[in-house]
Design a protein that fits this description.
three-stranded antiparallel β-sheet; 18 helices; about 15% strand
């Protein structure tokens, strides 16, 4: 489906634990204060199947002749129950069905998973419950079934409103079908229908992109996500570009497209609340905000990522968990031990703080002092980014004040370029505040792990 970039685990990759880092080295080697906090989390459910692989897609998706939906449903329900019990969370803030193409699942499967969520923790009546959908699997009748199952928000992978661009992207729907799907969704989910668009396609001009965006504005509801096309190795589209059949879009053009989109959407009343996301009338995505605010989330399904404290095992610190990628292997694991977690890593306080930084700066609210303090009670934002960060502030990229640390509008557009220096500043400050002897042969320097030498960025 959509080129999500960070939405979910991809954005976390910038701050993912590095090999060799010494867990717990720093001023707060004890468990983070989160361990004693009231337990709440969001839930992400991955449906791994698609009818067709898009030319740009390198997500964990599978094309099979026939899906044994009853078996998949049973495993999704079992894993949901197991992981929620393991986390001991008391309340669920949101649920998101992603993929793959979860609109290919039956409403009965969606309802069964939501029943499992509500049976293991409190799911408030008004909690946001989102389903990702392709226009080709969103008839009005089918959407009504999803609404009856408990879905109250839809995210539609439109990607483009031009048939030639849709063919280039390998989409199976037409522009007309996309328009019909959005109109049907808005009728059932008014104010809660989001659309995804991709820009930066080979040979796409700035004029063509602005025309597509204007057309989308005439169609969309109150939320829109814009993703710059990423040419991932191993995809059909990347092969065409690498082989010279298609040109690489110039970086200056991509920057102009992004800025033009921001200007157009803000003028239309949208708030640019995250690098790739715009909302008006308060229609921000509660679920996605839970990621960017570094809150706990539980990942269910093949390849799903999670971040939570396994209190049911006596855990007191957050873990990064990844479920087994391949659906059949994942189902076997769920059937044998109740869940299909393939990898779990306890995150050190520094690693958690790196994620707070990398994710929080994606939003226009940035990182408030209160959130930073929950993960770093001994090292303030000012202590880390005060004097060392003044250059970025003076250049107009960042703001650090009583409201916390955040990017300016200019800074959001180049966040990927700013993050390495910011992460290095954090690692150096953390190492400097660490008790005990200086790093030696038997002790890693956290800054050195990520290539941050002591003079870099100074």
């Amino acid at each position: 489906m959509a080129a999500r970039g960070w939405r979910r685990a991809a954005a976390i990759a910038a701050a993912r634990p590095g090999p060799g880092r010494a867990p717990g080295v720093g001023p707060a080697s004890e468990p983070a204060p989160e361990a004693a906090a009231p337990a709440a989390a969001s839930v992400y459910v991955h449906w791994p199947y698609c009818r067709k692989r898009c030319s740009y897609c390198n997500f964990n998706t599978y094309l099979v002749p026939a899906v044994d939906e009853a078996a998949v449903r049973a495993c999704l329900v079992q894993e949901t129950h197991t992981l929620l019990q393991l986390s001991q969370v008391k309340s669920i803030t949101s649920v998101f069905f992603g993929g793959g193409t979860p609109s290919l699942a039956s409403p009965g499967t969606i309802a069964a998973v939501l029943e499992a969520v509500a049976g293991a923790a409190h799911l408030p009546a008004g909690a946001e419950v989102t389903l990702e959908a392709n226009p080709s699997s969103t008839t009005t009748q089918r959407l009504a079934g999803f609404k009856a199952a408990g879905i109250n928000r839809l995210s539609i992978g439109v990607q483009s409103l031009d048939d030639a661009e849709l063919r280039l992207l390998g989409r199976e729907h037409t522009a007309t079908e996309a328009q019909a799907a959005v109109e049907a969704a808005r009728g059932l989910f008014p104010g809660r229908t989001s659309i995804d668009l991709i820009f930066g396609l080979p040979r796409q001009s700035l004029g063509a992109w602005t025309q597509r965006l204007e057309a989308a504005l005439g169609l969309c509801d109150d939320h829109i996500s814009l993703y710059q096309l990423t040419l991932e190795r191993g995809t059909a589209l990347a092969a065409q570009v690498l082989g010279g059949a298609l040109p690489v879009p110039p970086q200056d053009l991509l920057a102009d497209m992004y800025q033009a989109a921001r200007t157009t959407l803000v003028a239309a009343g949208f708030r640019h609340y995250e690098v790739s996301n715009f909302a008006r009338k308060g229609a921000l995505s509660t679920h996605n905000l839970s990621y960017w605010r570094a809150e706990q989330y539980i990942g269910v399904g093949p390849g799903a990522h999670g971040r939570f404290v396994p209190r049911g095992e006596g855990g007191c610190s957050r873990e990064a968990r990844v479920q087994v990628l391949e659906p059949i292997a994942w189902m076997r694991a769920v059937q044998s031990r109740g869940h299909g977690t393939g990898k779990r890593v306890m995150l050190s306080p520094l690693e958690q703080l790196e994620e707070v930084l990398a994710l929080g700066l994606r939003t226009d609210e940035g990182i408030p002092p209160e959130r930073w303090g929950r993960f770093s009670p001994h090292l303030s934002l000012e202590a880390v980014f005060g004097a060392p960060g003044q250059a970025l502030q003076q250049q107009g990229w960042m703001v650090l004040d009583d409201g916390g640390l955040r990017c300016t509008a200019r800074g959001l557009a180049v966040l990927d370029a700013l993050l390495p220096d910011l992460l290095c500043q954090l690692q150096r400050a953390w190492a400097a505040a660490a008790p005990g002897p200086a790093p030696g042969p038997g002790r890693k320097d956290p800054g050195a792990v990520s290539g941050c030498g002591p003079a870099e960025g100074s």
